[in-house]
UniProtKB/TrEMBL annotation:
Keywords: Iron, Metal-binding. Residues 91-117 are annotated as: Disordered. Its cofactor is Fe cation. The lineage of its organism: Eukaryota, Sar, Alveolata, Dinophyceae, Suessiales. Residues 3-108 form the Homogentisate 1,2-dioxygenase C-terminal domain. It comes from Symbiodinium necroappetens. This is homogentisate 1,2-dioxygenase. GO terms for molecular function: homogentisate 1,2-dioxygenase activity; metal ion binding. Fe cation binds at residues 57, 63, 93. Homogentisate binds at residues 72, 93. One of its GO terms (biological process) is tyrosine metabolic process. Pathway: Amino-acid degradation; L-phenylalanine degradation; acetoacetate and fumarate from L-phenylalanine: step 4/6. GO terms for cellular component: cytoplasm.
Length: 117
């Protein structure tokens, strides 16, 4: 997994996390997966004028997340390696207050190297 090539935005906005999908188990319904495995390897975040941490969102399927190494940019102080969380379908979730404050005050005119997460 350390060799997975990260894909990202080079202009503006935070791309959909599905860009990190490395494995999907499909169902007979187009666009609906049993499970998707997503990784976020070390990467550059060059997008300008945008909120770089993961944003508040809802998913059409449940989201289980675990952190193996590094830190998680949406909850850097509370989500440590070995931690996991689950968000059921359509439940809003996103970064903690500290990540929102840091993300909105950050100078985004320069690229940042993030990872490993």
């Amino acid at each position: 997994m350390r060799l997975f090539m990260a894909v990202n935005s080079v202009t503006y906005d935070h791309p959909d996390p599905s860009i990190g999908t490395v494995l999907s188990s499909y169902t007979s319904t187009p666009g609906l997966a049993n499970v998707d495995f997503v990784i976020f390897p070390p990467r550059w975040l060059p997008a300008e004028g945008t909120f770089r941490p993961p944003w508040f969102h809802r998913n059409c399927m449940s989201e289980f997340m675990g952190l193996l190494t590094g830190s998680y940019d949406a909850k850097p102080d509370s989500f440590v390696p070995g931690a996991s969380s689950i968000h059921n379908r359509y439940i809003p979730h996103g970064p903690d207050a500290a990540a929102v404050e840091t993300g909105t005050e950050r100078d985004t005119s320069n690229p940042e190297r993030w990872g490993p997460t």
